[in-house]
């Protein structure tokens, strides 16, 4: 059997290469099938860790769902998947009913579906020590296996930086767009510039910039104090001629709610943070309109609210 060698000196048979190419093409078809009914795909990314990217992802997905849209939330952060814990989701993904069947995501409520790479791990506390090729294959397989159905929005929570995970998402998911999260500090702003340049290098359209931890909400008087400055995210957006979606203040109640697995936006509590997310969602709706007008949300369990035929009116800022 004839053989061919690559530049590194390793040899592989033509049959092996053809088999690998066929498997890759089959996976590409599966990814297209999985994502084919999703109108808007949004990658939430940041230049560095600790800026609240997962908090933004979770609450953005919740807020869109509360508006009545069909929303998916996918966590592809291999080393630090937090979405499941922040939503306090229990259970496991169901095994496919047939070899070529897709896997249904977990349901948080009637309008929000959730999946996380954490469900691929036997032990959720086990450290994941994978090199790039393993990460890429895991993410591609993960995307290909999911049965999302029809969605208005798919929110993808990626790890910080511009490494294998966001690059794989950018190259794997057709027409994915990005929201870049930063904090006002200069060190975060320096890293967010790299994220913006990353998106431009891989031809990913940027929906806009979100400035998180923009001030601190006093738990006593509910006023916002600029401990970490404010306006840096808006300045970067202006520098790169990008839309500025809004600024979210640091609210101790939001942090506590995430730790308890009861996200703040699933409650009826009003606060500057809830109002800020409402403004951000309104900006996203204008830039990325859904498939159709939203239907009233039928909340199940946590986050119940009274909905009328005109939509969910008991949740301000959602």
Automatic annotation (TrEMBL):
Binding of ATP, residues: 47-54
GO function terms (MF aspect): ATP binding; ATP hydrolysis activity; ATP-dependent FeS chaperone activity; iron-sulfur cluster binding; metal ion binding
This protein's record includes keyword Transferase: no
GO cellular component: cytosol
Keywords: ATP-binding, Hydrolase, Iron, Iron-sulfur, Metal-binding, Nucleotide-binding
One GO term of the biological process aspect: iron-sulfur cluster assembly
Transmembrane segments: none
Family matches, as Pfam families: ParA
Database matches in InterPro entries: Mrp-like_CS (IPR000808), Mrp/NBP35_ATP-bd (IPR019591), P-loop_NTPase (IPR027417), YlxH/NBP35 (IPR033756)
Family: Belongs to the Mrp/NBP35 ATP-binding proteins family.
Free-text function comment from the UniProt entry: Binds and transfers iron-sulfur (Fe-S) clusters to target apoproteins. Can hydrolyze ATP.
Quaternary state and interactors: Homodimer.
Protein name: Iron-sulfur cluster carrier protein
Organism: Desulfofustis glycolicus DSM 9705
């Amino acid at each position: 059997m004839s053989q061919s060698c690559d530049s590194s000196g390793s040899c592989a048979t033509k049959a092996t290469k053809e088999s690998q190419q066929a498997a890759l093409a089959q996976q590409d078809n599966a990814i297209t099938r999985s994502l084919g009914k999703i109108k808007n795909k949004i990658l939430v990314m940041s230049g560095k860790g600790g800026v609240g990217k997962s908090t933004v992802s979770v609450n953005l997905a919740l807020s869109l769902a509360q508006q009545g849209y069909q929303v998916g939330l996918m966590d592809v952060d291999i080393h630090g998947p937090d979405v499941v814990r922040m939503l306090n989701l229990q259970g496991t993904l169901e095994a496919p009913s047939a070899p070529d069947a897709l896997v249904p995501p977990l349901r948080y409520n009637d309008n929000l579906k959730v999946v996380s790479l954490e469900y691929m791990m036997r032990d959720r506390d086990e450290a994941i020590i994978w090199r790039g090729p393993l990460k890429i294959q895991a993410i591609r397989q993960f995307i290909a296996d999911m049965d999302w159905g029809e969605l208005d929005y798919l929110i993808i929570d990626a790890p910080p930086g511009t490494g294998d995970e966001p690059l794989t998402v950018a190259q794997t998911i057709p027409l994915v767009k990005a929201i870049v999260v930063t904090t006002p500090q200069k060190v975060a702003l320096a890293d967010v510039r790299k994220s913006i340049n990353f998106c431009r290098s891989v031809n990913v359209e940027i929906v806009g910039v979100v400035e998180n931890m923009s001030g601190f909400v006093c738990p006593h008087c509910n006023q916002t104090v600029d401990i970490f400055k404010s306006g840096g995210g808006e300045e970067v957006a202006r520098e790169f001629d990008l839309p500025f979606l809004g600024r979210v203040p640091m609210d101790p109640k939001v942090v506590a709610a995430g730790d308890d697995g009861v996200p703040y936006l699933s409650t009826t509590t009003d606060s500057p943070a809830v109002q800020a997310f409402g403004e951000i969602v309104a900006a996203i709706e204008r830039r990325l309109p859904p498939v159709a007008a939203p239907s009233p949300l039928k909340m199940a369990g946590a986050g119940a609210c009274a909905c009328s035929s005109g939509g969910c009116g008991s949740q301000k800022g959602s």
